[in-house]
Amino acid sequence: MSHITPPPVDSRRWITLIVVGLAQLMVVLDATVVNIALPSAQADLGFSDGQRQWIVTAYSLAFGSLLLLGGRLSDLIGRKRTFIIGLIGFAIASALGGAAPSFELLVAARALQGVFGAMLAPTVLAVLTTTFTIPRERARAFGIFGAIAGAGGAVGLLLGGVLTESFDWRWNLYINVAIAAVALVGSFIYVPSIRREGPRPKLDIPGAVLVSGGLFGLVYGFSNAETDGWDAPLTWGMLAGAVVLLLAFVFWQSRAGHPLLPLQILRDRNRSAAYLAVLVAGAGMFGIFLFVTYYLQLTLKYSPIQTGLGFLPMIAMLVLAAQLGTNLFVPRFGPKVLVPIGMTLGALGMIWLTQLDASSSYVAHVMPPLMVLGLAMGTIMPASMQTATLGVDREFAGVASAMVNTSQQVGGSIGTALLNTLAATAATNYLTEHGPSSVADAAIASYATAYWWGAGFFITGAVVTALLFRRRGQGRSLGFDTPPAGAEAATDTDAAPALAH
Hints:
Layout: E1 3-5, H1 13-29, H2 38-45, H3 49-77, H4 79-98, H5 103-131, H6 135-166, H7 171-190, E2 195-197, H8 205-228, H9 233-253, H10 269-299, H11 304-310, H12 312-333, H13 335-353, H14 362-389, H15 397-434, H16 439-468, H17 492-495
Antiparallel strand pairs: 1-2
């Protein structure tokens, strides 16, 4: 059995948070920053509407299917080394995408971004988990990190609009080179190294193949449903294959000598509830960005920059809620109270959005529900992310962190595909009933359908997380109570029993 010696508490740990926060922002915003640039890229490179989705899907396919492998690699070869490799690779892939002379090379570069993003994302969270060992500071750090993770998609929309209008669509990719360069310099100085003692565990190759194939099939199947429909053989074939591979993965993990995902990580009720909460929030969040963007640009005729600015109040409320939650409410009430409240707020915000029509104004009708949704995300994400990695043996911090990103990515992919398909069906039905002259009204009706289903996601999440999370009295072992005086020196493995290897 191997053992990892943790570093002492580092006086520069808050700068470490800034460095890993930059990397996380780069990974998260890249899921949306390219969206606003797509029309310009399409005009420049001359690809079809049917090909357009692959600019987005290539990234999410590689990213979502390789996250668990990336998390385990960070456990095996070291957090700092994996972080640096991920940053360099992401920067190179971004530069290749920015300079791409053809559609095929752009898709390949986006897939390569996803590969290195799958190394970066879980490593970032694992670095935080092992850097912030004082319970109070850990809560504060995860509050900031949760705000970055939640706001990254909206920042991507704003940045994409500014770069596309002010410069060129290619700068949506080139900007990552600058961000990665700053983070790379910071990583050499401020990201701590964790020394491993004893023999190095082996990489679970069969497990990596099974889970990567299963997640690939899941993301691909739901993405294919957007274009070919739910009844297409390829859609059902990929989804059915994904289920078979993921079941085989679980079976193998229970028998593997060095499992990619130690199943004891999932046996904790609080941790499983946290992963589920991140999945539901991911599904709802991506739906918000997608359909509100459509509404602002197509119905209210906003420019890309105006659309990005329209999400700023949501970001502000998200950051405020994240800080209040982690510093005041989570220590007092625990995730069993906070996460269902956030889910309920998410449902209310979605229902409020269903009231939008062609005569609605931004300040009176769009901004208030977006602010409610920002509160919801800021309440759900930090509490869930902190819970998902709390108490995990340091040796498994990378893979436990990867599960957070996997949950968010899979949730976003499923939510986007499902809501898009439901919205398209609603628009078709509306046009059938009211005639082809009602295209604008049909679009608004389709958005409302998506919001209603999004509200359903959040309501389901509220009920399930309220049932799954343990009561606060049981939460002391998970570190949700404010530590008593003198407890500041406790480590995260003191805050909860370490999982058996």
